[in-house]
Amino acid sequence: MRSFSYLLVDILTVLFPVIWSFENKLNFYSKWKYVFKSIFITGFVFIVWDSVFTYLGVWGFNPKYVVGLYILNLPIEEILFFTVVPFACLFIYENVFVLFVGKIKNGVFYQVSLVAGLFLFFAGLANIDKLYTCLACVGSSVLLAYHAARKKQINHEVFWITYLIVLIPFTLVNGILTGFFTDEPIVWYNNAENIGVRFFTIPVEDFAYNLFLLLLNVTLYERFLGRLYIQK
Description:
Layout: H1 5-20, H2 32-56, E1 59-61, E2 70-71, E3 74-75, H3 76-100, H4 110-126, H5 131-148, E4 152-153, H6 156-177, E5 187-189, E6 198-199, E7 202-203, H7 205-225, E8 229-230
Helix pairs in contact: 1-3, 2-3, 2-7, 3-6, 3-7, 4-5, 5-7, 6-7
């Protein structure tokens, strides 16, 4: 049963968002084609990144907690992670959009994007010798800078509110994967490639990684929807 641990995490992550996608007011299922296009492109980027980092020993997976099927030296559960987590995140994002768009002025959180982008960029440069820290921070900062430089872009308020909400299930899921509830972690990290600071059992770099993953999915999702905003 222990070998199904990671798979169970994947299933539970996506179960409620899939069921609630058919709620009448949200009608999230009607946007699935845009969701999965975004997930496919983002997933390709992150799976390649994941595979390379696994090969280099930046992180790895405990064989006791996976079913044993591997693709590109990644357990199938990790491949599924890049489908179920973005799906759940975009589901939350769409809910936030329905609840908040038009109720707060677009641009209030634009400054947050600028400050966060600068902080992450310099944090990455300061740790250029640590692969995970550097790439997670710089990657996120570059994507934030892309939105800062464009007139038509995502709604920063909706994105940051979503990110803050996502931190709750993110902390639970990553806590499970990094060993907060188990004798050994399902996913282990090589501390030589990160700064060694953890929030409970979660490397702080995971928060930048999660930001990068969410922002890239949202960027593509909004572009496919054609629902971009003009920064004033």
